[in-house]
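Page 37, continued from 36.
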C-alpha cells in the first residue's frame, strides 16, 4: 500500500513543480541557485532521458508507453508474488516518475525538465532533469540492488 502512495506522491509532486515552472519561468530561461551549483531552467524535452530517443522521432511516445508497461508489469509481479520491500519501493519510484513523464509526453508532446547542475563537466552541466528523472534513476538503482541481494533462506 505504501508503494502506491509513493507512486502517486511522485506523480503529483512532479506535476505541480512542472506546472509551476511552466507558469512562472519563460521557456529556455535560466536562474542560478546556491552560488551557481543548481540551475533552475524551463526546458521542453521532446526526446527522452539521456537522449536515448531524439526529438522528432515518431515512435518516442510508443516506446515510452512500452517501457511504462514493462515497469508496471514488473511492479505488479513483485506485489503479487510478495517481492522484497526494496524491490517494490524501487519499482514504485520508477513507476511514479515514468507515469509523470509519460503523461506530459502524451498530453503536450514533450516533458518539462527544470534542474541542471553547475559543474565543470560540460556534458553534465547541459543535462536537464526533473523530479521524475531522479526517481526513475534512484528507483532503478534500488531495484537492481534488491535483485542482486541473495534470497533469504527460510528456517
Amino acid at each position: 500500500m505504501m508503494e502506491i502512495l509513493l507512486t502517486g506522491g511522485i506523480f503529483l509532486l512532479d506535476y505541480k513543480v512542472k506546472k509551476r515552472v511552466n507558469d512562472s519561468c519563460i521557456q529556455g530561461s535560466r536562474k542560478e541557485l546556491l552560488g551557481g551549483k543548481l540551475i533552475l531552467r524551463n526546458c521542453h524535452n521532446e526526446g527522452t532521458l539521456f537522449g536515448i530517443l531524439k526529438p522528432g522521432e515518431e515512435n518516442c511516445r510508443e516506446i515510452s508507453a512500452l517501457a511504462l508497461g514493462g515497469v508496471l508489469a514488473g511492479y505488479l509481479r513483485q506485489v503479487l508474488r510478495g517481492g522484497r520491500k526494496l524491490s517494490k519501493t524501487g519499482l514504485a519510484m520508477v513507476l511514479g516518475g515514468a507515469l509523470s513523464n509519460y503523461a506530459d509526453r502524451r498530453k503536450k508532446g514533450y516533458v518539462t525538465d527544470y534542474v541542471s547542475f553547475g559543474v565543470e563537466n560540460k556534458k553534465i552541466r547541459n543535462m536537464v532533469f526533473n523530479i521524475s528523472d531522479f526517481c526513475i534513476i534512484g528507483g532503478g538503482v534500488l531495484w537492481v540492488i534488491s535483485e542482486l541481494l541473495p534470497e533469504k533462506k527460510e528456517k
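The radius of gyration is 17 Å. Flag for discussion at group meeting. The chain has a mean pLDDT of 85.
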